[in-house]
């Protein structure tokens, strides 16, 4: 914003609240300010001043120190302690001009003083000065808000760019998964003798696909304050995502991973850090090289040390102190490198590790490669990384004959059909939307409800869960989802009967239902 615009803003009339128990003085000041183009509000007591300020949101308050009931100092404290009124400028009008009085007023939050008796020119000058200051403060606050939003968008762009970079590798992995299944399906169609191999390959490849999608889900998860994760699992997931990119650049990844306790960081946050460091290493190696990744316990303190090193071009000494600065990059147009970059990746890594009570450092020299070292505290709780295949609180049922009445709610026809075939058509009712399920529950009773959390063209699965529980708090609802458990509200996980992560094993579902799986 230019200086001219700023001055014009400051010159615009403001809304002023005048607070004084002297009605004659109150009227005189109000008329004076209205002649100058200001909009005025009045209050004769501290209680009324608080009420008007919160309702009308004035730009500035002329506040008399001595008031009946709640005095000016207390009004000042209350307004400045409230987020909604903190930005209002307060000019304390007082005949108590000692240094101690001024200190007390400033400590209460007053922005300026006007001594009694005052002259009109001085009053108007102090009001103009305070409104200019408020205008500048408001502008700075708005610019800061825009900067935070811009930085958030840049971080989001950086993450999207990372996924884009890995897209070809991810596609390659899925094509390999589907190639095995498709090939054996074609063979089995021509000759039934290949059916056992098809079943085995399909189950194995489904597990591979689950690991890959789990890695992608981890990357998008937000970290909670008390999160914990299995470091080995997170590194395995990150390597799944960069494997193809490294191979296509002739880069070998060497691992030295010791068994360590769970780390005090969420799986998504740690994976974001590891991915950033691995991708930086890949970019730093121009033609064939090696990335080393190690994990071990660190010292007598309960810490875990992770190092990621590469044999790339290294970092000049003059850049080492700036490597974690926001927007500093050695990539693309900003840094002279071949790869594009925003300069936020390492800054994000630094902030994540620091926020978890850890430390990240770098050692590097030109043509000697780079090594990043991370230390993280050990978690005091069990790992919260990958969700278990089965979770919840299954109880022993009296009915062990498999004659349970079960409602299946899923928008995928193949899944509905598969569960119906497995559980027995006579015992199963299938619905494709939450609305249809709620309707059928009004007329039929079920021993179990198997509910897909994410359904297209339907009310949200979580909302369906809440409505079903509201209708019958005793409902035993088994949640099924392709997302990890962290995407489900904690109160829902606690009140559901069990949680299954797709693709799930029918043995696990049988355990929950106390059914026998056909051999």
What do you see in this structure?
The chain has 519 residues and is of the alpha/beta class. The protein is 48% helix and 17% strand. The chain is built from 17 helices and 16 strands. The strands form 3 sheets. The protein has a 6-stranded mixed sheet with strand order 11-16-15-14-12-13. Strands 2-1-3-4-5 form a 5-stranded parallel sheet, with helices on both faces. A hairpin with a 5-residue loop joins strand 9 (359-364) and strand 10 (370-377). It is flat.
Low-confidence stretches: 1-11, 332-338, 382-401
> How confident is the prediction overall: mean pLDDT?
79
Numbering strands along the chain, what is their spatial order in the largest sheet? 11-16-15-14-12-13
Task: Tell me the strand percentage band.
Answer: 15-25%
* Helix coverage percent: 40-55%
Provide a count of the helices: 17
Structural class: alpha/beta
Label the overall shape. Answer: flat
Write the layout of secondary structure elements.
Elements lengths: L2 H9 L3 E5 L3 H13 L3 E5 L2 H11 L3 E5 L7 H10 L7 E6 L4 H10 L3 E4 L4 H71 L4 H25 L11 H18 L2 E7 L9 H18 L4 E10 L4 E8 L6 H4 L11 H4 L9 H11 L3 E6 L5 E8 L12 E3 L13 E4 L3 H11 L4 E4 L2 H8 L6 E5 L8 H11 L5 E5 L8 H6 L2 E4 L4 H8 L6
Parallel strand pairs: 1-2, 1-3, 3-4, 4-5, 6-7, 12-13, 12-14, 14-15, 15-16
Antiparallel strand pairs: 7-8, 8-10, 9-10, 11-16
């Amino acid at each position: 914003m230019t200086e001219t615009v700023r001055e014009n803003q400051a010159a615009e009339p403001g809304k002023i609240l005048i607070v004084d128990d002297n009605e004659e003085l109150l009227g005189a000041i109000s008329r004076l300010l209205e002649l100058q183009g200001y909009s005025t509000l009045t209050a004769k007591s501290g209680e009324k001043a608080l009420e008007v300020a919160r309702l009308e949101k004035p730009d500035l308050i002329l506040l008399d120190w001595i008031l009946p009931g709640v005095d000016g100092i207390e009004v000042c404290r209350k307004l400045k302690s409230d987020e909604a009124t903190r930005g209002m400028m307060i000019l304390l009008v007082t005949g108590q001009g000692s240094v101690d009085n001024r200190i007390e007023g400033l400590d209460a939050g007053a922005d300026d003083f006007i001594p009694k008796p005052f002259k009109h020119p001085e009053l108007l000058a102090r009001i103009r000065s305070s409104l200019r200051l408020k205008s500048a403060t408001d502008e700075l606050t708005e610019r800061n808000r825009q900067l935070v939003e811009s930085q958030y968008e840049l971080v989001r762009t950086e993450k999207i760019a990372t996924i884009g970079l890995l897209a070809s590798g991810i596609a390659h992995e899925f094509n390999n998964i589907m190639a095995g299944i498709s090939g054996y399906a074609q063979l089995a169609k021509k000759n039934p003798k290949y059916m056992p191999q098809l079943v085995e390959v399909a189950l194995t490849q489904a597990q591979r696909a689950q690991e890959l999608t789990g890695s992608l889900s981890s990357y998008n998860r937000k970290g909670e304050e008390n999160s914990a994760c299995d470091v080995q699992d997170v590194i395995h997931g990150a390597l799944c995502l960069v494997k193809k990119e490294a191979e296509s650049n002739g880069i070998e990844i060497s691992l030295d991973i010791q068994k360590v306790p769970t780390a005090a960081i969420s799986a998504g946050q740690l994976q974001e850090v590891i991915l950033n460091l691995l991708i930086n290493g890949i970019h730093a190696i121009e033609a064939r090289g090696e990335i080393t990744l190690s994990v071990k316990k660190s010292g007598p303190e309960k810490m875990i040390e992770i190092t990621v090193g590469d044999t790339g071009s290294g970092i000049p000494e003059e850049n080492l102190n700036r490597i974690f600065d926001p927007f500093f990059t050695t990539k693309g147009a900003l840094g002279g490198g071949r790869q594009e970059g925003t300069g936020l990746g390492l800054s994000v890594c630094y902030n994540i590790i620091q926020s978890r009570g850890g430390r990240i450092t770098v050692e590097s020299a030109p043509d000697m490669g780079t090594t990043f070292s991370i230390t993280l505290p050990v978690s005091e709780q069990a790992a919260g990384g990958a969700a278990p295949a089965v979770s919840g609180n299954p109880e022993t049922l009296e009915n062990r004959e498999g004659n349970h009445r079960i409602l299946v709610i899923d928008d995928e026809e193949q899944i509905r059909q598969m569960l119906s075939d497995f559980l027995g058509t006579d015992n199963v009712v299938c619905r494709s939307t939450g609305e249809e399920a709620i309707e059928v529950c009004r007329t039929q009773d079920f021993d179990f409800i198997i509910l897909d959390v994410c359904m297209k063209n339907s009310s949200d699965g979580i909302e369906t869960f809440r409505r079903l529980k509201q209708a019958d708090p005793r409902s035993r609802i088994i949640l099924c989802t392709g997302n990890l458990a962290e995407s489900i509200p904690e109160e829902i996980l606690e009140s559901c009967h069990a949680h299954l992560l797709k693709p799930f094993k029918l043995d696990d579902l049988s355990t929950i239902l106390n059914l026998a799986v056909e051999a």
